[in-house]
Amino acid sequence: MIEFSGVSKHFGAVTALDQFSLEVREGMVYGLIGPNGAGKTTAMSILATLQLPDAGTATVDGRDVVNEPMDVRGIIGYMPDFFGVYDGLRAGEYLEFFAAAYNIPAEQRSRLAKKLLELVNLPDKADVYVDSLSRGMKQRLALARCLVHDPKVLILDEPASGLDPRARVEMKEIIKQLKHLHKTILISSHILPELAEICDQVAVMDTGKLVACGTMAEMTAVTRGAKQIKAEVLDRTEELAAFLASRPGVTGSFTDGTAVSFLLNGDQAEQAALLQEIINAGWAVAEFVEVKRNLEEAFMAVTGEGVDHVGGN
After folding, report:
1. Would strands 2-11 and 55-60 be described as parallel, antiparallel, or unpaired?
2. pTM of the predicted structure, to 2 decimals
3. Residue of higher predicted confidence among 44 and 218
4. Which of 37, 83, 164, 188 is the most exposed place for a label (fewest CB within 10 A)?
């Protein structure tokens, strides 16, 4: 249903996407996760025909986003991470306006707006002005707007961004409902546990590249056998990070003050051997411990980012 093949995109000297390839099958909820600047938003913008790739191809339901942009727009609903709502309209009027933009007959628009408001749990907000809605309600209204033309594919860029816990739960439940309606959904987020609950598969992006992808079970297995180690040294922290990156079984090393954190695939003997290598190479080690981590931290380690660095894009 969705396919990226060798897609690259540059903004001056910055490479936003680098030979990015990904396939999403029909009816699947597919999550994109990655640190700030990973390329998630750029990939989605290209898919929504808002930006052109510099190389490679992207298709939706067999339609090329460059050569058949109007056809693509007719079968997708796109919700960007930053969106605008028309404050001078009531919620029902807002949806009817977009229904008119999609040439839906006038006699059907009011009924459609009511149906969509019920779907996104805003059944009593049809006559409420948009500017008086909470952020969570505006997010749900924006999602309803994406559905006015009954698209096959939904592209949702950080739909839960900025929402409180209750609003995030509501958004998650709506996405589950849309899955039951057989929509194909590509969704980005930096809140990995939420994606884990709703996605069939997940892809990890970093610096415009696909780092890893698969089902949640497969992705968990990627990091299940790896221990996250924190090594605190007295000096030359950056040098230690580079040294560790060259060692067998070590991935995703990053610095944090006087400490270096990394993933190590190996048993206790290999852990002890690595510590001895560090000492033999001249570092004064103040601490060398295994850190208990959650799944989100593991993915951030794989992409070389600390959890504090996780963000959008």
Report:
1. antiparallel
2. 0.74
3. 44
4. 164
